[in-house]
Amino acid sequence: MQKFVISPTRHPERLARFRAVNAHVSDVQHYPGVDAADMSVEDMKRRALVSETCDFPPAVVAQALSHVALWGNVAQSGAAAMVFEDSAVLCANFEAESARLAATLPHDWDIVLWGSNCQGIFQHEVQPGFVINIASFPGQNESPIATAFGDQQVTSSLFRLVQTLAPCGYAISPAGADKMIKGCLPLKSVGLSLICAGGNYVMAESLDMIMNSYYADMASYVAFPPLCLLPEAMTMVGNN
Q: What range(s) does the Glycosyl transferase family domain occupy (predicted)?
């Protein structure tokens, strides 16, 4: 499975940091994505990629469309791929453990989150169609802990995903990419009830919030314990 890291070309220090802390993971290709400095939100609206009512700032739109563009490549190529934020830290045995978990997936899987952040909270099924549970891993996003995570061996399990925020690394299948494109475009400021926001009804402010509208109806999975972490609490709010 090909691996990509989204990192804007005009911030080479971000890509350098990713490669330094994840030197143990091979063949991660650089994907520059959409640069907010070169993008017109109005043009994106004319191209029906962004709705007229979308309130996302340009950096958030650019970050979202970077992921969407990769999804398009996956859907067209017919081959699944992994996508990482350039702030992600991958565990020492990421390649072996992610391959082991991927081998257990059903043939119709759509998306697998290797790690995410919502103050360390996500919602998943403990037993298929029966129990919904909330798991937290406090302290995981403190910078020293996350940085040291790259030296740790992790044994993980997959659970059906219901909700989470800020995936810092995930695998997506061609079918999953097609579903996410159709669901998330045009980008829009929609209202969501998010367990990661205390069960409150909130307006989507980024792509990862919109994605929560579709996880439960797709063959979505999350690895726990996570195989990658963010060094600080963040969402897809514009790494651009």
A: 64-182
Choose among 38, 30, 134: nearest CA to 83: 30
Greater confidence (208 vs 123) lies with 208
> For the chain, how big is the Rg over CA atoms in Å?
17
Q: Would you place residue 146 in the very low, low, confident or very high pLDDT band (cuts 50, 70, 90)?
A: low
Q: Is the pTM of this model over 0.70?
A: yes
Q: Is the pLDDT of residue 60 over 80?
A: yes
Strand partners, 171: 82, 112
Task: Please write the tens of the pLDDT for every residue from 192-213.
Answer: 887 666 677 888 989 999 998 8
- Residue 157's H or E segment, with its range, is strand 157-163
For the chain, domains (ranges, CATH) are 2-229 (3.90.550)
Q: Which of 124, 80, 123, 84 is nearest to 102 (CA)?
A: 80
d(CA 188, CA 179): 16
* The pairing of beta strand 121-127 with beta strand 131-136: antiparallel
Does the pLDDT value for residue 143 go beyond 60? no
CA gap 202, 225 in Å, rounded: 27
